[in-house]
TrEMBL record:
The protein's name: Thiol reductase thioredoxin
Any Pfam family the entry gives: PepSY_TM
Taxonomic classification: Bacteria, Pseudomonadati, Pseudomonadota, Alphaproteobacteria, Sphingomonadales
Domain of life, per lineage: Bacteria
Keywords, in A-Z order: Membrane, Transmembrane, Transmembrane helix
Source species of the chain: Sphingobium cloacae
Residue ranges of the TM segments: 20-39, 148-181, 228-258, 390-413
Signal peptide: none
Amino acid sequence: MSKPTRFHEFHVKVHRYLGIALALFMILIAGTGSIIAWYDDLERAFNAPMRVVTPQPQGWTLHDALVIRARLEAQDPHSHLFSLQLPQQPDQSLFSRVMPAIDPVSGQPHAIGYDEVFADPYTGERLGQRMIGQPSLKGSGFFSFIYYLHYALLFPLGIGILLMGFLALFWAIESIIGLYLTLPLKLKPSKTGAKQRSFMQRWSTSWKISRGAPPARRLLDLHRASGLWLWPLLLIFAVTGFALNLGGIYAGVVHIFADYAHFQEQPPRPPLKQPLINPPVDWFEAAALGQRYFAQEAEKEGFTLGKPAAIEYRRDLGIYFFLMHTSRDLLDRQGTPTETDSPATAATIAIDARDGRFLGLQLPTGQRAANTVTSWLMALHVTAIGGRPWQVAVSAFGILVAGMSATGLLLWWRRRKARKPKARAPLAASSGMAGNAGIVTPAPLRPDCKR
């Protein structure tokens, strides 16, 4: 046997205290993640009035959707519908993200009480609106609150996303240290010359739960073995959690090693000195330009075009982002493209809102190796591929991670209790020890001793 080195003991302490700091967060994050693996299904089931519409034979066009967007914005002049998500199924509603409009007099944003609005793409009827993350037990807001908890906890959005990004980074570090600590220590040469077990034979113990072992040992085995079996997923979800919340930092790190583009986090040009509120290129012209540019790029890059997916205007950049499904999309088991509201997993064209210039193309796969890998990892995280089996797997994974975090806390608590010094029992004097009130006074500790 070999004693742990100082290097090993240092990492034991880092793993322990970092794990304690992360445990409650991880229980909440993993628990909510196991629910939102079914987010779209739950939204359609419990928020049907805003999510589900009756298909109409005449259908709808991109122009119709843009007219509806303008109408919804006109209904509340204090709102700015900056991101329009186009339905991909006949019974899906038209969904738009909202931010406050800028008061032209004061230059300050108006106060509005919602950041999402839904409409019928066939009739233009306003189906409802809500503030994502607002605590609610109603079907219209409950699962959006769970979703918000998953990526921002109870903090304001900017602070929550920043915190969650760093928590994901620490989670990745904790996972790597945890893997290292399962590796068996280096053996000292045997004095008798007896044959020692190989590295793999000794490591195999860490993958198992000992039968008949004391409860404390079984708890340790459960924590260690579950971490090993789940380790690839632990690292994938940690890295993608970091990328989803701190995409700019992720893009900067990845770009050091490989060509990578992320228009939303690292746009084609820096922010403007002043937001461009009323751009010369309007939404209708931007949509027409987006389709034209996509047709040109498809011929040049050799991909085919599907349905338009979304259009977004960033007034801080003066840039439109036009998203479209293409043959470079990732598909689920039913052949349905992945979600459309993330530029990491949908083809995106950037258009200058000042003069309509083409600013760049970002494809989810086949254009840049780093984008292709990231798109796959992102799609796994948000259950955009793999269909029902993967949703079940991710939901189960969330429950297991919550359980693993709980066992880690329990291990720490049991060790903490075991290390507490027991109170000394008073020593009764014998009948022959008179004059000391029946108590023996303990000798004072030497300076080099510890109680």
